[in-house]
Design goal:
This protein is an alpha/beta fold. The chain has 13 helices and twelve strands. The chain has a single domain (about 5-325), classed as Rossmann fold, CATH 3.40.50.300.
Length: about 325
């Protein structure tokens, strides 16, 4: 498979202006040098606790947040490849048509004053400056059908729909530009349990029907492993472990990944945080961010950043842990 998206050493920090940790020129690193490769037709899962950097990574991938260091390289539908950055407006516009972001909460991402028809078409109308309006409307109506909504929903407003239906509208809106990649940022976490399974199955159907690639983000490792071909485990803005989903479920290697699996069965990672130390801001790029919680910590963990290393012959697994490297 071709590499659709290649992320190298992606770094993003935020200035601390106030609060307990604030000092002059103090920055918090939300991403501390993340590497990620997404292949065409693949679903890449991202999992980790609140504050691990999942949403910052997703927003940086579509340049809602600008990264400070590192590169995002994209292979376009016409076979050309370029580095994604805000200053390159022409390529960024093409990129955002082919790479679509689906937000966690459809209630806040859909303008309540607009009808479904306007929500599905307004962005594309602005980008095409009104050209091919008939074709745009036709694609938008097809999108409604693809996500299981009715043609009569075209003139209704978001407040008239349930949470699951609003998320279907958000997915239909993403499909209008005929994307190649969907970035799904915790798209089921705000939904009722009874609806989550329906949206997950819809995503799988859309992936197969349109040959989509996906970055799928969630707190729940079991859900991510079910949806994804490969899974990356984030903690403190760094990639702790990456492996094919089946291999990760059968034998997690990083102490943090083991902690997630060893938590109470049936509980999402968000609820598991109550029984463990909460994440604190990463204020410097030194040592392993998991060291304060790790049961296997050694002095080297506190001073030297563990780099992702291949573990196992041809397994496709990477683990960033000094202890795993030494075994």
């Amino acid at each position: 498979m071709n590499e659709l998206l290649e992320v190298t050493n992606l770094t993003k920090s935020f200035q601390l202006h106030a609060g307990l940790f604030a000092q002059a020129d103090q920055r918090v690193y939300a991403l501390g040098g993340v590497d990620l490769t997404l292949r065409t037709g693949e679903t890449y899962g991202l999992v980790g606790e609140s504050g691990s950097g999942k949403t910052t990574l997703a927003r940086t991938l579509v340049q809602l947040e600008a990264h400070e260091r590192g590169t995002i390289r994209y292979l376009s539908s016409d076979g050309s490849a370029w580095e994604v950055r805000r200053g390159d407006r022409r390529n960024l516009e093409r990129y955002r048509q082919e790479v679509r972001y689906v937000f966690q909460d459809p209630s806040s991402s859909l303008d309540p004053r607009m009808t479904v028809g306007d929500l599905l078409t307004i962005g594309a109308r602005q980008r095409t400056r009104g050209k091919d309006r008939a074709g745009l409307v036709a694609r938008a109506r097809e999108g409604l059908d693809h996500v299981g909504l009715r043609a009569s929903d075209w003139d209704r407003r978001p407040s008239e729909f349930s949470g699951g239906q609003r998320q279907r509208i958000a997915l239909a809106r993403a499909l209008v530009t005929r994307p190649r990649l969907l970035i799904c940022d915790e798209v089921v976490s705000a939904l009722d349990v009874s609806v989550r399974g329906q949206i997950l199955e819809l995503l799988l159907d859309l992936k197969n029907r349109f040959g989509l690639s996906m970055v799928f983000i969630a707190h729940d490792l079991d859900v991510v492993a079910y949806m994804a071909d490969r899974v990356g485990v984030l903690y403190g803005g760094r990639m702790m472990e990456e492996a094919p989903s089946r291999l990760l479920v059968e034998k997690p290697l990083h102490p943090y990944t083991k902690l997630l699996f060893d938590s109470a069965p049936g509980a999402g990672i968000r609820s598991r945080e109550t029984s463990a130390q909460k994440l604190t801001p990463t204020r410097a790029l030194t040592g392993c961010p998991f060291a304060p919680r790790c049961p296997l910590v050694i002095d080297r963990c506190r001073t030297e950043i563990p780099l992702p290393r291949a573990v196992g012959p041809q397994s496709g697994r990477l683990v960033a842990c000094h202890r795993v490297e030494a075994e």
